[in-house]
Amino acid sequence: MQKKLIENADFSKTGYSYTLSLISGKYKPVILYCLMEYEPVRFNEMQRYLKKVADKTLSQNLKELEADHLIVRTVYPQIPPKVEYTLSERGRSLMTVLDKLCDWGNENRTC
Question: How far apart are CA 95 and CA 64, in angstroms?
Answer without folding.
Answer: 17
